[in-house]
Amino acid sequence: MNTRALPLETSSFLSLLDTHRVFDERLRAHQEALLARDIPAARRHFQVLAGELRRHAEFEERECLPIYARAGKVPGGPPELFTGEHRKIGQFLDRIDAMLAAIERGAEETTRGALAILDEEATLKNLLSHHDSRERNIFYPKLEEVTTPAEREHVLRMAERLELAEEPEPPFRTIIEPFRIKVVEPIRRTTRAERRAAMIEAGYNLFGVPAEKVTIDFLTDSGVAAMSSAQWASSMLGDESYAGATSFFRFREEVRSWTGYDHVLPTHQGRAAERILFECLVKPGQVVLSNTLFDTTRANLEALGGIGIDLPHPRSASPQDEYGFKGDIDCDALERALTEHAGRVALVLLTATSNMIGGHPVALSNARRAHEITKRHGIPLYLDAARIAENAFLVKLREANQHDRSVLEILREFFSLAEGATFSAKKDAFAHIGGFLALRDTGVAAKAGSRLVLTEGFLTYGGLAGRDLEAIAAGLREITDERYLQYRVSSVAYLGRGLSKVGVPVERPFGGHAVYVDAGAWLSHLKPAELPGQSLVCALYEEGGVRACEIGTAMRGAGGSHTRELVRLAMPRRVYTQAHVDYVIETFERLAPRVRRMPAMEIVEEPSYLRHFTAKFRPVPRG
Ligand SMILES: *Cc1c(COP(=O)(O)O)cnc(C)c1O
To answer: Which residue is catalytic, options 119, 230, 242, 317?
Structure first.
């Protein structure tokens, strides 16, 4: 960060008061951001201001007050008055920062919280202005009188070293993609008639529609990222040796540096890592507890005779609740479940972020508590880390005391709390294929290794080509770039805000990879059994060729623990621009007038596992 020093050539201590004007500007920038409801920016400005005020006070107390004390009794200006005011200012700064943190966490509603902050700041401004005039009229003139020339030079020199942080740049309104486009892939446009025909042929299941007939594909963010030039370049370095390929060692190095676990098993996807983990740890009839199990995770568990129980945070039940960590596991419920199912719980799996409900992050404090609870019960804690970098960034943005840590530090702490992790490289590693199972325990790793060889491939490739291992290793390095992550969460929020503006009910607050439309609320004329989410995804496709994913009764079946009817618009990483997002918003806008006429849907045909991939539907004929 650039720093600016106070000018040395100044002849008077009064110049030290110039900094007070800088404080006013900072406070204004902070308040402007607060009014724009840009809480992260408001907090950033505030923290810069608070740091400067504290350094300034400390400087005065260390360098100036001892000299000032020599002036003896100064009417209206005893030294304790100045230190007392500094202390009081410090208390205001702490209080206001805590209030900002509460809004950011979602513990306080934005408007109410911002108004309370402005109130506090009115008093703080008053205090600062009184302090300023006392310094101007008493403190510095007196100091001028009693200092020797040598002292004066020393104090001014120290003041010069009193570094003031460069003013934070005012945030831009415009989100730019932090990359240029080097390779393009044409989008084929279709007519409404073509889309209708494709949809009917696919049995009203968009997984069955050929991709070339999709205009904007928000079906998933999995395996559909645009790889970077660095990833493509490193792919050429792929060592395709059957055993001991160099690419494996590079891959393992990256995974170890993230997780801190010794044992790294590459897998062709996340679900292979899940299956192998469950095969090693779960016996039929045993229970896996989770904040929310992803659909493939639950299916793999159930296929092995295990039982998955979701224990989502109670505040995740209401879509409008602004709580910032709706991905948390309900720790009280976890305690109860561990007692109730004592002797039958194989492991606890924390999914970060929680893809099944809103893409919400898990708080670091929640993971710490889950760690403490599972440890006390002697049950291992594992992570489904598919979007752990996005999760860590949301922690940095929203969680108290995490602002100053890097995403990498936060991410590493998550892994440090667990015994191992499954990972789908098709998400946060920008890769088109791949995953891993990383483990702390040597015994579990040996068992997992023999399962890996059986179905995935040798230990050093696990179903992947050397070039895939390279692309994943490079992707793991790129995903923790905080400027990228800022763009990522901003563009998801851009889509979310745009949909809100055209009256579409969306899950709040916005998460890391997708916007979740509350189809149950928007198509409120349909009951869950009438599959409002499926009806909406079909309408979106027919209207604009936009492909989205139902996450509701069609996916989960009736009677699951989550009865929400959601439609997920998952954003592929680095693939679509803002104009594409605007087009999606416009598609919703065009649907809005006829949302009440969207038909009920029914299932005509379904397989036994993961039915949403291949089930066939049809609109229920209106009676
Ligand atoms: C995608 C995903 C998986 C499964 O990974 P695949 O690579 O698709 O097999 C597991 N958990 C979560 C949270 C996911 O999003």
So the answer is: 242
For the Cβ of 424 lying below 6 angstroms from any atom of ligand 1, the answer is yes
The answer to whether 397 and 100 have CB atoms below 8 angstroms apart is: no
Residue 295 among the catalytic residues:
yes
* Rounded Cα distance, 76 and 88, in Å: 18
pLDDT band at 5 (very low <50, low <70, confident <90, very high): very low
232-235, long-range: CB within 8 Å, 24+ apart, which pairs? Answer: 232/471, 234/470, 234/471, 234/473, 234/474, 235/467, 235/468, 235/470, 235/471
For tokens 């920062």, name the residue.
97
The CA 241 to ligand 1 mean position distance, Å, reads 27
**Picking from 109-118, 242-251, 494-503, which range would have the lowest pLDDT averaged per residue?**
109-118
Give yes or no: 441 in active site.
Answer: no
Write phi, then psi, for 360 (nearest 5 degrees): -80, 145
CA distances from 54 to 88, 159, 163, 178, 559 (A): 11, 14, 12, 35, 56
**Rounded-to-integer distance, Cα 439 and Cα 256, Å:** 10
Strand partners, 437: 265, 422
- Whether ligand 1 lies within 6 angstroms of the CB of 222 is answered as yes
pLDDT of residue 141: 83
The mean pLDDT of 249-261, rounded to a whole number, is: 97
**What is the band of 12 on the pLDDT scale with cuts at 50, 70, 90?**
low
pLDDT of residue 2: 40
Strand 549-551, strand 287-290: pairing: unpaired
pLDDT tens digits along 156-194? 877 777 655 555 667 777 778 999 999 999 999 999 999
Is 612 among the catalytic positions? yes
Q: Does pLDDT of 64 surpass 60?
A: yes
Distance 266 CA to ligand 1 centre (A): 14
Q: How far is the CA of 203 from the centre of ligand 1 (A)?
A: 25
**Closest CA to ligand 1's atom 8:** 270
386 is catalytic: yes
| CB of 355 closer than 6 angstroms to any ligand 1 atom | yes
Q: Looking at residue 317, what DSSP letter applies?
A: G
185-221: burial string, b at 16+ Cβ within 10 Å, e else? eeeeebeeeebeebbeebbbbbeebeeebbbbbbbbb
Task: Specify whether the CB–CB gap between 221 and 427 falls below 8 A.
Answer: yes
**521 vs 504: CA distance, rounded Å:** 9
Residue 270 Cβ inside 6 Å of ligand 1? The answer reads yes
Q: CA separation (Å) from 502 to 275, 286, 499, 541?
A: 42, 46, 5, 18
The answer to whether residue 384 is catalytic is yes
